[in-house]
Automatic annotation (TrEMBL):
Transmembrane stretches, start-end: 35-57, 69-90, 127-146, 158-179, 191-216, 263-287
Domain of life: Bacteria
Keywords, comma-separated and alphabetical: Membrane, Transmembrane, Transmembrane helix
Protein name per its UniProtKB record: Copper ABC transporter permease
């Protein structure tokens, strides 16, 4: 083995060590300020309420079918998860810049992509654990209390829900980084991201569903698929609606039109990965061009 190969290996190991150190620091910070437990509690209360108390609106206490439960969780999670990811990441860089710690960090022997990847790994672990605990506990309870005939459906449905929730959170964490890198004030970053969240999670869907209902017979399906790809929240909805098809009238709504994309689950997961990789490169490019 040549000296170049040895140095390359040492450099690679050093980079991974730096990233893991930064990730551990971010993770511990969120443990210290109880962000992880707060987000987990919100998701757990949300999933338990939908699963075991959602039927109270109709005047009876009965457990919904798995497809209905998952449909309700997806509808609410599409608002909660992006908002949680935004609040976690909006001040990741602009906050460090205002405090003067970003300049101090960059005086150490680390590359900017080390800092970006370390923060992303740490924040991603926070949201991943929150999603696994928040939804996993409810899924486990449904398996233990439910009929043996639907246990496999519950396992499959909650597995897709947890995986897609993590991916959706990662996308919005990176959107938070992008805005945080582009502005100079934390308040401005938060304001822009809240507007972005409002548009992507609510306005975009309302406009899309209105167009779908009004023009369902003449709308070009390929154009509709492209429109879906421009919004990660719609991709999240479509993925879970395809993974958990609902046959009951209660679970059916105009939202099921989003699931009629003609795209399979593997391709949808690949599209989520494309969102994450693309945003990660965009954040790195913005960070690389900046003068601190």
């Amino acid at each position: 083995m040549s000296q170049t190969d040895v140095l390359s290996g040492e450099s690679h190991l050093s980079g991974l060590s730096i990233i893991s150190t930064i990730a551990a620091k971010e993770f511990k910070d969120n443990l210290r300020n109880r962000w992880l437990w707060m987000m987990t509690a919100i998701l757990l209360l949300l999933s338990l309420s939908v699963s075991f108390m959602g039927s109270a609106i109709s005047g009876s206490l009965t457990m919904f079918e798995p497809a209905q439960t998952l449909s309700g969780l997806v509808t609410l999670s599409v608002f909660i998860l992006p908002l949680g990811a935004i609040l976690l990441s909006y001040d990741s860089f602009v906050g460090e810049k205002e405090a003067g710690t970003l300049l101090l960090l960059l005086t150490y022997p680390l590359a900017r992509w080390h800092l970006l990847c370390g923060k992303f790994l740490g924040h991603g672990c926070v949201m991943a654990i929150a999603c696994i605990l928040g939804f996993g506990v409810t899924g486990l309870m449904l398996i233990l209390l439910g009929d043996a005939k639907v246990q496999l459906t519950i396992v499959s449905g909650f597995t897709h829900l947890i995986l897609s929730s993590i991916l959706l959170s990662l996308v919005f964490i990176l959107l938070g980084y992008w805005v945080s890198l582009c502005v100079r004030e934390k308040a401005k970053a938060l304001g822009i991201l809240l507007i972005l969240w409002f548009v992507l999670a609510l306005i975009y869907d309302l406009v899309l569903l209105t167009v779908l209902v009004a023009m369902a017979d003449i709308l070009n399906r390929e154009l509709f698929n492209i429109v879906i790809l421009f919004n990660p929240t719609d991709l999240f909805r479509a993925l879970n609606l395809i993974a958990n098809p609902a046959d009951t009238l209660v679970a059916k709504s105009s939202l099921t039109l989003i699931a009629q994309t003609g795209l399979g689950l593997p391709l949808m997961y690949c599209l989520f990965a494309g969102w994450i990789i693309g945003l990660l490169f965009c954040c790195h490019w913005v960070f690389k061009q900046q003068e601190i």
